[in-house]
Design the sequence.
């Protein structure tokens, strides 16, 4: 069993322990299967948005769509809204179930909200 998977699509990270961001409390709203968390840079505390998609089956269609979405986010840029910073995929074991989570970190321009 893997403790941490490589970053999504060649990934920009090596797992949660090396994530250069702090994951905070989730926002009360969600977008589909994704959970939106408050986050910050570990170095300077600047705010970021962290999105997480968790599934119990590594071959789940939602995870496949999430991986494809990460590929696209790396190339798409939209001024003054969101910009892709980082992604990683982690596998965790919580007693009897193994869960796979994709994390996407976005730089959020708060002026747009």
Sequence:
């Amino acid at each position: 069993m893997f403790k941490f998977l490589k970053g999504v699509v060649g990934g920009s990270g090596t797992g949660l322990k090396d994530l250069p961001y702090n994951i905070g409390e989730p926002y009360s709203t969600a977008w589909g299967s994704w959970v939106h968390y408050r986050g910050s840079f570990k170095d300077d505390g600047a705010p970021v948005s962290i999105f997480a998609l968790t599934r119990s089956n590594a071959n789940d269609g939602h995870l496949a769509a999430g991986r494809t979405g990460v590929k696209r986010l790396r190339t798409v840029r939209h001024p003054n809204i969101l910009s892709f910073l980082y992604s990683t995929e982690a596998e965790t074991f919580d007693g009897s179930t193994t869960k796979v989570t994709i994390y996407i970190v976005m730089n959020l321009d708060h002026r747009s909200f």
The first helix runs from residue 61 to 73. DSSP finds one helix and five strands in the chain.
